[in-house]
Amino acid sequence: MGVATDLEAATGVTVVLAEAGARAAVDVRGSAPGTRETDLLRPGQLVEQVQAIVLAGGSAFGLEAAGGVMRYLEEQKRGFAIGPYHVPIVPAAILFDLAVGDGAVRPDADMGYRACLEATDGPVPEGSVGAGCGATVAKIYGPGGAVKSGQGSASCRIGDLIVAALVVVNAFGDVFDRRGNLLAGPRNPATGKMDRTVELLMGGGASGEPGNTTLGIVATNANLSKEALHKVAQMAHDGLARTINPVHTMWDGDTIFSLSLGEEEADVNLVGIAAAEVVAEAVERAVVTAASLASIPSVADIKNM
Question: Is 213 considered catalytic here?
Fold first, then answer.
């Protein structure tokens, strides 16, 4: 995995590489997604494997970053072979961060290429980096009342089975820990204290607005078909529902990809259950590891105010 980050513009790219190919699926639950190559991931399509997944800021402009990832992979002669050519298969999804930093600067092909050059199999960068650079949550009061978020990761091992998640949290809603405690809610402009979005909505007089999306990638060493991976991606969304409220709204573009690269035999139910667990943990990590940026405070800084 690699990241490219522009702290001044508050945007970036996160890429997960599987150069030799991995089976993949996707499940989109939000109603405002920005994606590419997701139709190809449906069962019954010709191409069975992808070489990378790209997550990026920049709204729809950020989809351009996938072109740089394709350029990198083509140089490595990776992709779907057609005659003398290799066509890398690079699904992507974006989030809206234009209102956070410099909205005129967006992830592009060069940034996607740089993220590939930075890719390692070491510890996953977390916080306000990569696609999570400009991520925020709890935005019912607008950017001025939001809380800084970012990208987080988590994994678990069950015997020889490994399930891992990477999540970039740019949600309209609030973030809770897995015990139900509020981690990040909208900052009341009068008191500075964190409110709860659902209570504001249910009380009337408040509404949401577009510009929100939580993106995720679940990867496993289980040997799963596209059909099974689609089920894993569906179940992984339960991790978002446990930690983000409200979630999957008309104002969000929530999207989770799932990847299988390995030969471990495992029950799809177990993989999906584990996926929901690690997604929930990764959401928490995305918030608690984030740093304040562009005048939007992190959870840690709010606690110290």
Answer: yes
